[in-house]
Amino acid sequence: MASQEIRKVTEAYPMKGGDGPDSYAKNSTYQREAMESVKELVTKGIAEKLDIDLLLPSNSFHIADLGCSVGPNTFSSVENILEAVELKFQGQGLMNPQIPEFQVFFNDHTPNDFNLLFKSLPPNRQYYAVGVPGSFYGRLFPSASIHLFHSSFALQWLSEVPKVVEDKNCPAWNKGRIHYLSSTDEVVRAYKAQYAKNMESFLHARAQELVYGGLMVLIIPGYPQGTPLSHSVAYLTLQLIEACLIDMVKKGVISEEKLDSFNIPMYSMCPQELEAVVEQNGSFSIETLETLPRVLADDAVLNAKQFAAHGRAAFEGLIKQQFGKEITNELFDLYGKKLEEELSMFKPRKTTSFLVVLKRKEK
Ligand SMILES: C[S@@+](CC[C@H](N)C(=O)[O-])C[C@H]1O[C@@H](n2cnc3c(N)ncnc32)[C@H](O)[C@@H]1O
User: What's 348's domain CATH number?
Assistant: First the structure.
C-alpha cells in the first residue's frame, strides 16, 4: 500500500446525520432531482463508453460512490449505475452467471453517519456493500481495483479553507466574510488555487485506483463561465448565512473574532477549470461534459422553508464546529426569515450542475 499517498485530512464537514427533520437524509431532494434528471445520460454514457473487454475477465465488478453521505440518494445512484452496467453486459450477449457480481463501496469522511447508511441499505439490493471512511482527496483503494467511480454533489467541498484566507498578515485575509464569492481578488485567487490543488490530488489518486478503461461519473455543482456569480444559488445561500452571522455579531451573540476566522471551504467550479486540471493530470479523457441547468424560482418561492432546511442540513455541522451548538437554532431561524424575504422578491436564481464522464486512458 502506498502509505505516503494516504493523506491525513483532519477537516471533515459531514452533512447532518440521523433521520430527523433537519437531517440530510430528509433534506436532499434538490440533489436527488438532479440525479434523477441525469439517469438517461448516465445510462447512455455507460452503454457507449464502458469498455467491457478491458474490464473482463473479472468475476466481480467494483463500483465506488465517493462522498455518499447517508442516503437515500446514494442508493438510487448506485441502483441506476448497476442497472446500466447490467444492460451493457447483456448487450454484449452475456447472461447470468457470466455477468460479474457487484460490490459497492460507500465512501465518506469518517464522521459521516455510517450507522444510518448501513441500517438503511435497500434490503433487496443486488450487490455486496462496503463502507470506506476517509477523504477522497487521498488514496482509498488498492491500485487498479475499481471499475466505476461515482460522485455527486461532493466535489464542491474543498479539503480545507486556503491558509492565506485565514491569516491576518496576508492580503488575502477574508475579514468579516465567510466565502470568496463576494470577496476580493486575492481571496478568489486563493480559493481557485485550492480547488486546482484538490482536484489534482483527486485525479491522481483515482488514476491509480481505476482500472484501464474504467469510468468516473461525476455530478458537480458549478456555473457556466461568464455567468455572474451573484446569480447563483450558492451565492444566495452563503450571502444570507454571512448576513445572519454579522447580525449576531452586532447583537453580541458571537464574537467578531470568531466570524473573522470562519470561512466555508466550498468552491463552485466552471467547466473550463475542470478541463484544465483533467488535461494537466493526463490520465483521463473527457467523454461527456453536460450542463444541467435548472432555474430555482417558483418552487423555491413556494417552498422557502424546504430550501432553508436544505441549507441547514449542509452547513450546520460546520457552524457548530466554529460557533458552538447553542447558536444554531437562532442562526437558522434568522436564515429562514431572510431567505423568505429574499425569495419573495422573485429573482430567478440558477442552480447549475454538470455531468462529467471521465475514462481512464490506457498506458
Ligand atoms: C452534499 S453531500 C452529497 C451526498 C450524496 N452524494 C448526494 O448526492 O446526495 C456531500 C458529501 O460529500 C462528503 N465529502 C465532502 N468532502 C469529502 C472528502 N474529501 N472525502 C469524502 N467525502 C467528502 C460530505 O461529508 C458529504 O457527505
Answer: 3.40.50.150
Structure confidence at residue 8 (pLDDT)? 36
pLDDT tens digits, 200-221: 999 999 999 999 999 999 999 8
What is residue 56's predicted lDDT score, i.e. its pLDDT? 66
Nearest CA to ligand 1 atom 10: 154
- Do 14 and 317 form a contact (C-beta atoms < 8 A)? yes
Domain for residue 60, yes or no?
yes
For residue 169, give its domain range. 18-360
For the chain, helix (H) and strand (E) counts, in that order, are 12, 7
pLDDT in tens, 31-54: 777 777 788 888 998 999 988 877
Q: For the chain, report the end-to-end CA distance as a whole number of angstroms.
A: 21
**Residue 11 within any structural domain of the chain:** no
Structural domains of the chain, count: 1
Q: Could you tell me if 68 and 108 are in contact, meaning their C-beta atoms sit under 8 angstroms apart?
A: yes
Protein residues whose CB sits closer than 6 Å to any atom of ligand 1: 13-15, 28, 31, 67-69, 73-74, 107-109, 112, 135-137, 152-154, 157, 159, 314
- Closest C-alpha residue for ligand 1 atom 24: 14
Establish if 4 belongs to a structural domain: no
